[in-house]
Amino acid sequence: MLNFKPISLESLDEIKEYLPCKNNRTCDSTVGTLFMWREFYKSEYTIYNETLFMKVQIFNGKTSFTLPVGKRPMEEGLQTLVEYTDQMNMPLTFCAIPEEALEPIKVFFKNKVEFQFDRDMSDYLYLSEDLSQLKGRRYSGQRNHMNKFKKLYPDYQYIRMNKDNLDRVIDFYDDFSKNMVKAMETAIEENKRTEEILPLIGDIGLFGGFIEVDGEIIALSVGEIINDTLYVHIEKALKEYPGSYQMIMNEFAKDSVNDSVLYINREDDAGDLGLRTSKLSYHPHKLLDKYYIKVISN
C-alpha cells in the first residue's frame, strides 16, 4: 500500500506540491525543515491517494508519523496509516502533531490515544507586522540595538541572495561555522545541513538575504513562504557587530513579507534557554505547541 522512500533533492518538487494543503503554521511540513533534517530523523515519504505521508525515526530509532497532508480529508490519511501499521505489525505513533489536530485525532481513535507535550519543540509564531516594524515600547530594546548598529555602521547594506553572490555567502558561513561552539547534536546537524542548503538558494523554494559592512558579510537569513506564513530556517550573525542579530531579523522580515504574508514562524528553541529568552523577547503572537501521540489500540 504505502511505499516509503528517503527524501532527496530530486523528490522535493513532488513533495512541495502538497505542502500548501496543510492547515497549520508549524514548521515541520516545509521544504527547509524536511530537507535539512531528513538524515538526522531518517525521514521517508510517500504519496498515496493525493496525500503526503511522512515517517521519521525519533526516540532511539522508533518510527513515528507526522500528520498526513493532502487534498483528501485527514481522517482518510489516518485510516491509511492504521492499515499500514497493522500490515507491518508495528505500533502507530505520531510526532510533531499541531494542537489544532488533537481533537480530530482523539475523535477518530475514540480517545484511545496518549498525548505527550514537549515545550522545547513549540514554534514561535509572530505577526509579520510586529517584526517588520518593531513599533511600540515593547520593542524599544531591539530598536536600541539596531540604532547602535546603524550609528556604528551607517553604510551597511542589506542584499538579497542570488546566484551571483552565493559563493560569498558560502565562504562567510564556512568561516562562521568554524568558530561555532557545537555542543548539541542538533547544532552540529544544523551546521552541516546549512552548508548543504546554501548553494541551493533559489532552486528549491528557499530565498535569503545578508547584511554587508565594508564589503564583508556579517549576517544572513534564509527562509520560505507557504500560504500566509514566512518560515525562517536559518539566521546567523557575527556577535562582534553589536545589533547584528536584530538587524538581520528585521531586514529579512521587511524584505520578505507582503500583504499576503501575515505571520512569521521562527521555529522552536530546542530547549536552549538563551534562545528561548531571545525568542520570547520578540513577543510571539502565539506558541505553536506540538505533541507526540501514541495510539493505544489500532
From TrEMBL:
SUPFAM superfamilies assigned to the protein according to its UniProt record, in alphabetical order: Acyl-CoA N-acyltransferases (Nat)
Q: Name one Pfam family in it.
A: LPG_synthase_C
Taxonomically, which superkingdom? Bacteria
Which part of the chain is the Phosphatidylglycerol lysyltransferase C-terminal domain? 25-293
Enumerate the InterPro entries for this protein: Acyl_CoA_acyltransferase, LPG_synthase_C, UCP018688
- The name under which this protein is listed is Phosphatidylglycerol lysyltransferase C-terminal domain-containing protein
